[in-house]
Amino acid sequence: VQLVESGGGLVRPGGSLRLSCAASGFTISDDAMRWVRQPPGQGLEWVSGITSGAETYYADSVKGRFTISRDDAKNMLYLLMSNLKPEDTAIYYCAKDNIRGQGTQVIVSS
Fold first, then answer.
1. From 10's CA, which of 72, 80, 90, 91 has a CA 20 to 30 Å away?
2. Are 89 and 34 in contact (CB under 8 A)?
3. What is the dihedral of CA 37, 42, 44, 49, to 10 degrees?
4. Integer CA distances (angstroms), 95 to 4, 12, 39, in order
């Protein structure tokens, strides 16, 4: 089982980014997946989740700005982040159960 995130970078407040997570060794649509993040100097926090039935859930802090989705044919998970704020700065990880990738860094700064 492997998860590899990509798509992070430096973006100005109000900007957008799309994070991607390539999964291998399992089928992402068979299980719930989630995005978590770790802001600088802080612990992990849950951001968003998608069930095997494609129901989606969001932390209050990102609701209305972030969209989680998946491409079952490509076995990929995505997180579209819009109207980014400096407080969204963090390392973002996709996760399944207790497994997560190496993360991708997002920096929101002017």
1. 72
2. no
3. -40
4. 10, 26, 16
